[in-house]
Design brief:
The chain has about 500 residues and is an alpha+beta fold. Helix content is about 40%, strand content about 20%.
Length: about 500
């Protein structure tokens, strides 16, 4: 393969990334995916001399290695998607951003409904005067006796973000679901160019509002690698604690919400409160329940004295006992299991084909977790298998969360029991010029990927963000096939994906 192999968080000169002819690039990507690697990121960048360069980041979870390769596609190239479905959303994004057409893409449509970043280059031939609105496009339609269409959203009955779901149904059976987002597009990646700026960390903390720590960590590690900054051990430990508290809060809330969707009120009521208890532990660390202001380049902005550590340990033990009691009610109740099992199944083969990540992938039997596969010096996870189930249904996606809750509580206890002494922040030097780094963190939804490229002045020339939801929305769509439309709320909650994380 015509690629450069690098370690996680290894900053390299951009010049080291080989530029292949497009047919070679396509062949190498397809062969790598067929051999077990997956597309962690695929993006386009403008070249100083004009045109667009494609860059692929391929992850080898077994070896903990990353492969980078690039090509200049011109104005069109043969689409990867027919042979590699996990490239589908990436190619739609590239087409929308840069007007480069992946010829032969099976369903090439806008992703976020914004104008091309290159004036005069639009993949759909739109002009600057054409109105653009989310979800205004052609949708897949099925015809036949008894076939009908159900449109849901973008405004929903609950207090959630906007998204449009269009079902093709035969009676109550869902034959096809198409999901159209883009309502939360804020232009984050363009806003990051020329950084880092003082406001950059605030963009990162709000990329997906419930994943403050996960995205802030990925960003800060990228900056630290480019700056040659060594984070103090105490700061690493506090970061680990915050990341796992974020996972605990969201997994607990999700299990409660799943219970609520089937009317199982004991677990729903308890977990709603207990989620708040975990959020309050994060507030004890930094004053913000969502962890805003805690993680900063070089370390953390807040320390934890012995009294605060003792209180955290006491609160954690008490809340975990309550969570265990509330959640175990689910697994002990036959009516709950009957509703969860065999609902919204995604097979292992399909999860691999789509490139699913996080609990959604692990619930289908894929043993992957970037905390283990792409470790960070000083951050602790341990060896051994990740929290894996094999049935790929709502039950599996729920039970993986429970397994991860137990693991996260254990990790926090270990870190707090042996919290290193010393400082909590180191100074960061200016970023290396003309360099690239790939930073990965395991957010509670799954793998978060940040790719930072700097220019000759050491500023961000390109900053690529891949939220786990970007990989997983198609998994939700296919989980509904063959289900009843009344299964949608339950399947949707079992994935619990981010609209704004996808839309950026």
């Amino acid at each position: 393969m015509n690629a450069v192999i690098l370690r996680h968080l290894e900053a390299i000169p951009v010049s080291r990334i080989p530029v292949a002819d497009m047919p070679v690039f396509r062949r190498d990507v397809l062969e790598a995916v067929a051999a077990g690697r997956r597309i962690a990121a695929l993006y386009g960048s403008p070249r100083p001399e004009g045109g667009i360069r494609l860059t692929a980041v391929l992850a080898d979870d077994r070896e903990g290695a990353l492969s980078l390769l690039s090509a200049d596609p011109g104005e069109a190239y043969p689409s990867l998607t027919p042979d590699c479905p996990q490239a589908g959303a990436f190619e739609r994004e590239i087409a929308e951003q840069w007007g480069v057409v992946p010829a032969g893409h099976p369903w090439l449509k806008p992703l976020r409904f914004h104008r091309s970043f290159r004036s005069g280059h639009d993949a759909w031939g739109r002009t600057g005067t054409d109105a653009l609105s989310p979800s205004v496009m052609d949708f897949f339609r099925m015809e036949g006796e008894g076939i009908h269409e159900v449109a849901v959203g973008p405004v929903h009955a609950g207090i959630i973000e906007p998204g449009h779901f269009r079902f093709q149904c035969h009676g109550e059976q869902v034959l096809h679901l198409e999901i159209s987002l883009g309502y939360q597009h804020r232009g984050i990646e363009r806003a990051l160019r020329g950084g880092p700026h003082p406001r950059t960390i605030h963009h990162m903390e709000t990329l997906a509002g419930d994943t403050t720590i996960g995205h802030a960590l990925a960003y800060c590690r990228a900056v630290e690698s480019l700056a040659g900054c060594r984070v103090p051990a105490r700061a690493q430990a506090l970061r680990d604690v915050a990341l796992e508290l974020e996972r605990l809060a969201n997994h607990t809330g999700d299990l409660g919400a799943l219970a609520g969707d089937i009317g199982f009120l004991p677990t729903a009521s308890f977990c709603g409160r207990l989620r708040g208890d975990f959020l309050n532990m994060t507030a004890l660390l930094c004053g913000s329940r969502f962890g805003r202001g805690l993680v900063r380049p070089g370390g953390t902005a807040f320390d934890a004295d012995p009294a605060r550590v003792a209180e955290l340990r006491q609160r954690l033990d008490a809340t975990f006992r309550d969570v265990a009691g509330a959640v175990n009610l689910l697994w002990e109740t036959p009516s709950v299991l009957a509703r969860f099992e065999h609902t919204g199944t995604v097979s292992l083969a399909l999860a691999i084909e789509l490139g699913l990540v996080g609990p959604a992938a692990r619930a289908s039997g894929r043993d992957m977790d970037s905390r283990r596969d792409f470790p960070v010096e000083g951050a602790e996870f341990g060896a051994g298998p990740a929290a894996v189930q094999e049935s790929g249904d709502v039950f599996a996606r729920a039970y993986v969360r429970w397994l991860e809750i137990q693991k996260s509580a254990e990790l926090i206890r270990r870190q707090l029991a042996a919290l290193p002494a010393g400082s909590i922040c180191a100074a960061c030097s200016p970023l290396a010029p003309n360099a690239l780094v790939v930073s990965i963190s395991e957010g509670w939804r799954g793998e978060i990927v940040h790719v930072a490229e700097t220019d000759a002045a050491g500023r961000f020339a390109r900053y690529k963000v891949v939220d786990p939801s970007f990989h997983n929305w198609m998994g939700l769509a296919l989980a509904l096939r063959g289900m009843e439309i009344s299964d949608f709320p339950l399947c949707n909650k079992s994935f619990n994906l981010s609209y704004c994380g996808h839309d950026l």
